[in-house]
Amino acid sequence: MRSTQITLLTVAILLLGGFAGWWLTGRIGQVPETAAGASRPAPQARPAAPRERPSPTKSHERPEVSLRLDDEAAERGALSNQRTLRFRDRAALEAFLESIEGSGIVVLGQIRELNLLRLGLLDPSRLGDLLDGSEELGYIYPVEVPGEGPVQEGAAGFGNNLLSWLGVDVDNSSWGAGVRVAVIDTGIGEHSSFTSRVVRKSLVEGNAGDELNPHGTAVAGLIHTIAPQSEFLSYQVTDPNGSSDSFTLARAIIEATNDGADVINISMGSFGESAIVENALAYAREAGIEIVVSAGNNGIEGVSSPASSPQTIAVGSVDANGEHLDFSNTGNVNITAPGLEVYSLAPGDAATLFSGTSASAPVVTGVIAALASYEGITIRQATERVLAAANEAGPAGDDPLFGGGILNVGRLLLDPATPTDDVAIASNYLTRGNNGSIVQVTVENRGNTNLVNTAVNISGPTGTQQLNISTLPAGGIHSFEIPVSSLATEFEFSSSATLSGGRVDHNPANNQRTDAYSLVESP
Fold first, then answer.
1. Helices 357-375 and 379-388, axial angle in degrees (round to 10)
2. Residue 503 C-beta-side C-alpha neighbours within 13 Å
3. Would you say 477 and 451 are in contact if contact means Cβ atoms under 8 Å apart?
4. Positions marked catalytic
5. Are 271 and 40 in contact (CB under 8 A)?
6. Interior CA angle at 139 toward 297 and 311, to 5°?
7. N or C: which end of the chain has fewer CB within 10 A?
């Protein structure tokens, strides 16, 4: 009889949690209809207040437990009637397990490395009576493959030009050798390009290979394009619709770490800040793993989780013109990369054009894996070099749109022993303020030599100016701020830079740029 009751209880909790999770994750994956994107509040898991443990009672003396709606979880956008509970040690966890008989609490999963349980609760209010205050109580949030977001008119896709756009002008067929890349996603489907180099694990029930959402295969396809010798560890954490949760994501991060991953790619997100995901990220980082995450496609200020964690590399998207894409979330971004109509792979030896920050993240992951193998350096060293070599874009320095800049492989391939001169107009960036508008012209030294007396020519609505940069060190930037006439409404702004002393520019194509602006407010 007791076994039947426990089974019915478990089924009831799973059905309730599953329905609530389906409803909430459906909402979280939608792109907001309004363009004014203030940051969404990040729910925080709060530990229960310490309470005295109640005196033991016999199981038949416990009051009957009935189903109670979980308003507290719903207010946070978390899965209803479920919690995570992390203990200070294994002994505390075992003691808790002994205390929950007849309490309406069912263990739905656990992560041993974190001393953590996933609990199903008929009455969440009764959980606090079983805690002593030393536990870390948390919520389980929906995690989704990002949906499609808005793309501005005139944005340019990449097609099959990814490698050349990144500046890869050498044979990359051996890149990625010896590097294990974990793809936590919808699962990597069968494709001849991945023969014998994919270890697949599913952390969800069912979902045969032919039912996989193609998202994970497209993610792996981009990593393979850049670092074709990489070994893949595939962790399927979603249903066919691309829906998962923070507990399953954390479990996959732990498993990838234990399985020897070098770098982890997560092209998924949530707007619930999960303590257990943060704990799992710390576990991976302590093992020397880098975690690359998509910033999200909601077109708002504020990246999704876990890209919002300082323990990850948050990646935004640009088009083939190097322009920030409207769907790419802004704020805590580390770097941007190609993210519009990039050629990749699909299950069944098919191909697809892949868009979104979901595409941008694996491009960065692939470059990190490629550089680590090519240079024979650690993943952490490769990551630092990739971030440092990003091309300046947007307003000077780190900014909410581009982070540290746009991913570039060509600069990573420069031979330090070979002097290379390369000056570039990084951006003409319009800023509107109370005292009028200015265009910030930023010049960058993308070579490995110091540049002296670089001439800069700037033309705009107020005329033409000839300026000079006396010294520009390798990797350095210099900005000029040019006021715009208050009478200007629609205009072009052109900038160019020229090396002095007869020096030959390595890439003259980036020496100039022209941008069109409109100061006319939209109706």
1. 120
2. 21
3. no
4. 185, 215, 358
5. yes
6. 55
7. C
